[in-house]
Structure formats: C-alpha cells, structure tokens
Amino acid sequence: MTAFVIPLAVFLAVVFAASAIGKLRSPDRGRAAFSALQIPVRRPDAAAIALIVAEALVALGLVATWGWVFVVFAAAAVVLTAGLLVVVVRAHRRGATDDCGCFGDWLPAAIGPRLITRNVMLALAAVGVLVTSVLIVTLTDEPLGVPLVLSSPVHAGDALGALAASALISAAAWSTARATTSVAAAQSAARGAGAVLLPETSEIADLLAPGTRARLLLFVSAGCHACETALAPLRNPEDDISTLVDVFVVQRAASGSSATRSAHELPRDARFALDIGGSLGASLGTGPATPVAALIGTDGIQAGPLAIGSDETTQLVESLRSLAAAPPA
User: Fold this and answer.
1) Which class is 195-325 in CATH?
2) Which end of the chain has the smaller Cβ count within 10 Å, N or C?
3) Average pLDDT over the chain, rounded to whole?
4) Which residue ranges make up each domain of the chain?
C-alpha cells in the first residue's frame, strides 16, 4: 500500500504547490477566483493570502512529514479538494462560466463539467491518500511518510520506481492532450473559422483574414473580474495603440443567448465582436478561460504566443503601447 500512497501524496503536493505559486505570480487572479466562484468574502486580498498559505503548508506537509502528522495533512488535502469541488459545482449550477483562477495564470480552466471532473479526481486522490495512510498507521503500527520511505533501503527502490512511473504517465497524458488540442486548433484555422459578428454594424467580419492592419483580439466573458483588469490599460488615453493595431474585444456568444452587447465597458477605439459558437476561439486554441489576447498580423496569422490571464495581456498591451509611442526611425 505504500507504493500506492507515496506517488499520490507527491502528486497532490505538486498540485497544491503549483496552485499556490500560480496565485503568487498573479495575485489578481487569486482574488478573482472568489468572484468567479461566487464566494462572498469581505476581504478578498486577505482571503487569497490565507488560501495560498494553506495550499503551501499542505504541499510541504505531504512530502516532509510522517506518521500521524502526515495523516493530518492528508486530511487537510481532503478538506481543500472537497471544498473546492463543492464551490465549483455550486458556481456551475448558478451559470458561472469564468476561469476559476485555481492556478492563477497557469492551467486556466473555465467553470463547467470538465473542471468538475478534474476536481472530482483530485478529491478522490486525496481521499485515497487519507484512507490508505490511516489503515497503514493503525493496522501495521508503522510510520508512513515520503522522507521515511525514501530513506528506507527496503522501500526506497519501489518508491522511486513508482514515482518515476507516475511522472512518465503524467507527462505522456499532458503531452497527448496538448498535441490533440494543437491539432484541433490547426485544423479549425485551416478552415478559416475567423468570422465574428460586429453587433454595432450588423456585419460579419473575418478577423483571421489578411488585411492592411494588424489586430489585437482580447477574449472576455461576462462577470469576469480579471477581464476588467485586462481591459483597464486599453482605456488609458495616453499612448493609444489604435495607431498601431485595430482592437477587438471578443465575447463568445453562447448557444441560445440573445446578448448582443459587451458585458464590459469598451475602450474608446475598440470594437465589440461576438464569437458565434466559439469558432474564432477554437481556431486560435484560446480555450474556454478568459481573458486571453491574440495578436494577428496583416497576413491573418497569429504573431507570437497567446497572452493568457490579466498579467500577460497587460504586458502585451504595454509592449504595443511602447511601440506606438516610439518615434519613427
């Protein structure tokens, strides 16, 4: 049973550590998670810090403790994963579709069935670690923990082998999913699915067609706090980037939705576009999370990687602003 617990404990520790670091890298996303998940908090900054500290402590405890202390941290992992599962299910039932902000700018995931499935698997992993560790400690009266297993000449080989196998399986699953997504996005782009509706003029425009000017596409969604943060630099009248690119604020039009207005205040020179059915986002491989920014060249081809999250989109806008403000050579 030790070979079952140790890889799962390390896996959960990595997940919690990545979540804490992701929120630290993008503190606005940590605060926005409470808004996206519709959790009312009086002090979102303090709540975000408390969550980061809790995740970091659980990650450290799962790999640095043993015996009943390890069991306590396993129980804490169950509380965190089960709590997140409950609030995600509740937000989904209320119609939320925002990026949950669970990992900050890393691994964006929109609230929905896929995120619920992911959280169910994490909760099951945590329960598996807790139940198995309790059985080992109580029935065999042997201390259990990553440090003890790795230092034991009897179990070290089995534990290292299990960890290596888990790492290979995780890497293979991740690369397979990434390759599948990339191929699907490339096939969509080959079909030229860049058409959007411009409600202001009732025209259909292909934002991936070659043109005389480059385009900045900023994908947003209703009720997205991080999207407001991403749009803020574009509302600054100083060093307007409209001299360099055409700015489009793109909002996905959900099936059956009659909303034809932007859910956010538009920058002065930006145009609002509805991505009917999400075909434009699928062509660029933006995924369901927002905000996401894409720079499209005059040839209709994406220039550089996607900017995902409020931090990266702000950096992209600031770079364009610097170029627009630079004197001509």
Assistant:
1) alpha beta
2) C
3) 77
4) 2-187, 195-325
